[in-house]
Specification:
12 helices, two-stranded antiparallel ribbon, mainly alpha, globular
Length: 237
């Protein structure tokens, strides 16, 4: 049995996505991968967090979280098949990565939404649902760092995958990693419902409430404008 480092996605990967992609550009072209053919955990823990997320998140944010799962799984299985961790761990990360953006949570703290969201996820998973601590901490770290984009240092495998998948859904970044038919199928199951406008408004709301927020590191105007003007996803919004 794999140890906790591999099982829960702790294996270190370079944080510089451009270097990572340069090393695999000449390899595989993406193929269609639909929702029905993608594995989805049905463990008691996964079911509990699924129901929690569906209750706590807005419908738009819940659908985004599900799209991030399916896009991430397409990227992992087709582009980085050697990335090994449980689907459950990645699903928990996806379902909880934006828990800090709810109306209740964004105004409950002075902390940036990713940091507070990581704390909420850690408490939910380790204290309330009794997940293995290595798994709960992996999810929390990935949530805290899912907008920690940069060129130096390293990040966990799960953290890097959710970065790739959220950038893809939010801004159309690294579109060469996912087939167009995959987008069509995933958005059919989990519609965007004007997600670009919705998330851009959330970014601006946090920046107004918390001018120190970590989100500002991505560009106080560049980031929300990039989300708002997501050309790849425009036909599906």
């Amino acid at each position: 049995m794999a140890d906790a480092i591999e099982l829960y996605g702790w294996v270190a990967k370079p944080r510089d996505v451009s270097k990572l992609l340069q090393g695999m550009k000449s390899n595989r072209h993406p193929e269609p991968q639909n929702v029905a053919s993608t594995g989805f955990p049905d463990t008691p823990l996964a079911k509990s967090v699924f129901e929690y997320a569906k209750k706590e998140l807005s419908p738009e944010t819940f659908n985004h979280s599900m799209r991030v799962y399916y896009y991430g799984k397409a990227i992992q299985t087709q582009q980085f098949p050697d990335w090994c961790f449980t689907d459950e761990t990645y699903l928990l990360t996806c379902l909880l990565h934006d828990i800090g953006t709810t109306n209740k949570n964004i105004s409950a703290t002075k902390m940036s939404f990713e940091f507070y969201g990581g704390m909420l996820a850690l408490r939910l998973l380790s204290k309330d649902l009794h997940a293995p601590i290595e798994q709960a901490e992996s999810v929390a770290e990935a949530i805290i760092r899912h907008q920690d984009i940069g060129q130096s240092g390293k990040i966990t495998t799960v953290g890097l995958l959710i970065q790739l998948a959220t950038i893809f859904d939010n801004m159309g970044g690294h579109q060469e990693l996912v087939h167009q038919d995959t987008i069509k199928d995933v958005t059919r199951h989990f519609p965007r419902n004007q997600w670009s406008s919705c998330f851009a408004a959330t970014i601006r709301k946090e920046n107004e409430l918390k001018p120190w927020a970590h989100t500002t590191a991505l560009g106080e105007e560049d980031f929300p404008n990039g989300v708002q003007n997501n050309k790849l996803m425009e036909p599906y919004d």
